[in-house]
Design a protein that fits this description.
Elements lengths: L1 H4 L12 H20 L19 E5 L3 E5 L6 H18 L10
Antiparallel strand pairs: 1-2
Length: 103
């Protein structure tokens, strides 16, 4: 959350440096654009491409801003199994999976 607010408490990590401040500018820029338009891309921001399951690349924002292979794919099966089990349990109970707010 520090990188979204731009406000850092002093910590054992030390004082924020220019790279930390650059990351704050990127993250607040992406979040602001997304809140405003539904798309994180905007002027003066590196392009954040839409996820393509065929390429299976993620957008890494850190020391470098780049696409990279999705990390820890081997661990997804455990999460997906747990998620599918919980969803099946919800469906059996008759609860709705619809998260659309009622009007």
């Amino acid at each position: 959350m520090k990188f979204l607010s731009g406000w850092f408490f002093p910590s054992h990590w030390g004082e924020p440096n220019a790279e930390d401040k650059r990351l704050v500018d990127l993250m607040t820029g992406y979040w602001t654009q997304f809140a405003k338009t539904g798309n994180p891309n905007g002027p003066a921001l590196p392009r954040w491409p839409a996820y393509d399951p065929k390429a299976d690349l993620v957008f890494e924002i850190g020391h470098e801003v780049k696409l990279r292979p999705t990390p820890h794919v081997d661990r997804f099966a455990v999460f997906e199994g747990s998620l599918n089990s919980r969803l099946a349990s919800i469906q059996k109970s008759g609860q709705s999976l619809d998260t659309t707010p009622e009007k």
